[in-house]
Amino acid sequence: MDAGTTYSAIVGNVIKQLRDDRSISQGDMAEKMDISQAAWSKLENGKSTLSASQLAKVADFLSVPTHQIIRYADDAKKNFKAEGMKVTYDNKEADKLGLMLLGAAAIGAIIATIVMAKK
Prior knowledge:
By secondary structure, the protein is mostly helical.
């Protein structure tokens, strides 16, 4: 079974890293986005996906350009692929491919390295 992740999980973890860097709680983000904290947690964990307008709103709240979030996610995707891991675009595809999805800690460690290196 191949190891991998979803692009939504990567984007969610990028946002989590940026949120943590600014000492903003999940509750504060959820309130700003007008959703529950549980719903926000699903976005950060890649179990739900952000719309383009939600992504722009998150970027505004975190004071980063929207393209920077995508750039960090794309850099992480490239790193995952270089390590021989698969990146899929939805959980159904991951199930179909029989991927063993990486945990949030593993994804977060790679993303933290990328975000910190870009500062």
